[in-house]
C-alpha cells in the first residue's frame, strides 16, 4: 500500500492518474483527510504502516507565509518531524517533495558562468517558505541518518494542466480582452517542471524501492533546460496560440525583479543540478517539450478556455 499527501494539488493529481494506470494500490490524503497542522495526526494516519509514503503536501503560499510563519513552520517543519519519526518506527519508506526555495543565488553564480545547485550544496533559504522547507529536510536527514529509508526530491517551478500555476495564469491574462500587454520578470532563472514528468519520476522511484533498490538520499528533479520567467511566459504564449487557447500574440515585456515586488523574496538563481537524476532515470525532456504536452492537454480538457 502507498499513501500520498497533497492529493488535490498539481502533483497529487498527476500521481493519482499514474497510480491508477500502473495498477498500484494507493490512498491519497487532502486537507480534509489529513490535517498536517495537527501534529498528532501522523500517528493516527500511519498506524496501518503503508509500504511507502509520498509526502507532497505542504504549506505552499509563499507570500502568505511571511505573515503566517507559525502555520508554515508547523506544516513544513514540525509536521515533517512527526511524520519522519512515525515512518522510521513503522519502517515506512518516505519520499519527501522539497523545493528550489531552499537555495538562493549567493556564490553559485560567478559572473556569466552558470553553476548548478547540487544535492549536497549548502542550503541558503531566504523567505519563510524556503526556511520552513529546509527545516523539514533537516528533520528527515537527522531522523533517518542515512538509513536508506527516505528520499528527498527537490523540484522547481512546478506546473500542470490542473490547479493554479504560472502557465495557466499567463494564459488567463492573455485571454483577458482588457489586457493589451504583459510584463514578466527576466532576472530570475530556474528550471520549469511539468508535474506529470515529476510524477513519472516518483513512480520510477516507487517501483525501485518495492524491488529493494536504494537511491541517493537527496535527488533533484526538473525538466532539462534553463529559463527565466520571461522566457517561460513567451513560450506559454506561443504554444497557447498554436493550440488556439489564445487568439492574439499580445506583447510581453521583460522587467527586473524590483519591478514586481512581493512580500517574500524569490530565488534569483535556482537551477538544480540533474546529474544524479540522469544516472538513474535517464535524460529528462527539455522544459519546452513538456510545456507543449501540458498546454495541449489544457486545450483538450478546457474547451480552449482555462
Automatic annotation (TrEMBL):
Annotated protein name in UniProt: dTDP-4-dehydrorhamnose reductase
Keyword Oxidoreductase: yes
Position of the signal peptide: none
GO biological process, one term: dTDP-rhamnose biosynthetic process
Assigned EC number: 1.1.1.133
Taxonomic superkingdom: Bacteria
NCBIfam families xref list: rmlD
Ranges where the RmlD-like substrate binding domain occurs: 2-298
Keywords: NADP, Oxidoreductase
Family (UniProt): Belongs to the dTDP-4-dehydrorhamnose reductase family.
Species assigned in the record: Leptospira interrogans serovar Icterohaemorrhagiae
